[in-house]
Amino acid sequence: MGLFDFNPDVAKLESEGNINGLIKALQKGDSKNRATAARALGKFKDEKVVKALIGALNDEDSDVRWNAASSLGKIGDSESTPFLLQSLRDEKWYVRQHTAEALGEIGDERALLPLLESLKDERIRNTVALALGRLGDPRAVDQLLEALKADDFSFRSAAEEALGMIGDERAVPDLIEALKDEDVSVRRHAAGALGKIGDERAIKPLLNAMDDEKWYVRLQVEEAIQELNTRLKEKKK
């Protein structure tokens, strides 16, 4: 039997929880079956699954590689971090994107500096920013604040969301300024981030932002004010 003559029923293997069968499909199936198996294996937190998915990061098919990276993120085993860091340099941008997302889900601090470097990668920088937010490391704040100056509104929004996740009060002045941004999404994400950080300096600017012309920005501002007040009460306990 040739390498890709093996034609398993991956959906059946997944429904049965047949880890060994899925690993065999990942290693010996055709490209479609390998990619499907890589995706299915993300449901199983097992040492041999992690090992098999790490191997699949070097598959010749890019769909297999990104599905393997995504599944490793779902499993969340930091053993895969060094191998995912290599995939962060994959030739295909969508493999790099799913890899960055996986690194954020795993939350291993070893990913911090490589992710900061990947903020220069315009194809994936929004995902990278959010991954940095999930890491929650305040060392990312300076570069995320720099991202607020970018021309791309979606990158500015992603950086704001990341800053909210990190929760560092150094971001408050820039986020307050972003409440007046020309882009609706940027204003909305700025409000959300200020609510998560919970700094009293944001109260008056958020109240002023209740006059925003867009109702969905006003809704986000209202929710942010409620969250900010809740956080301030918790700090006083």
Write the topology of this structure:
Layout: H1 10-16, H2 19-28, H3 31-40, H4 47-56, H5 62-75, H6 81-87, H7 93-106, H8 112-118, H9 125-135, H10 141-147, H11 153-166, H12 172-178, H13 184-197, H14 203-208, H15 215-236
Helix pairs in contact: 2-3, 2-4, 3-5, 4-5, 5-7, 6-7, 7-9, 8-9, 9-11, 10-11, 11-13, 12-13, 13-15
State the CATH topology of the largest domain.
Leucine-rich Repeat Variant
Measured as a percent range, the helix fraction is 55-70%
Beta-sheet strand percentage?
under 5%
Following the backbone from N to C, one meets helices and strands in this order, namely HHHHHHHHHHHHHHH
Q: Which assembly state applies to the chains in this document?
A: single chain
Mean pLDDT equals: 96
Distinct helical segment count: 15
In total, how many domains does the architecture comprise? 2
* C-alpha geometry: elongated
User: Spans of 5+ residues with little confidence (pLDDT < 50)?
Assistant: none
CATH superfamily heading of the largest domain: Leucine-rich Repeat Variant
Total E-strand runs: 0
What is the radius of gyration? 21 Å
Span between N and C termini? 68 Å
- CATH architecture field of the largest domain: Alpha Horseshoe
- Can you tell me the CATH class of the largest domain? Mainly Alpha
Please, could you describe this protein's structure?
The protein has 237 residues and is mainly alpha-helical. It folds into two domains: 1-135, Leucine-rich Repeat Variant; 139-237, Leucine-rich Repeat Variant. It contains 15 helices and no strands. It has helices at 10-16, 19-28, 31-40, 47-56, 62-75, 81-87, 93-106, 112-118, 125-135, 141-147, 153-166, 172-178, 184-197, 203-208, 215-236.
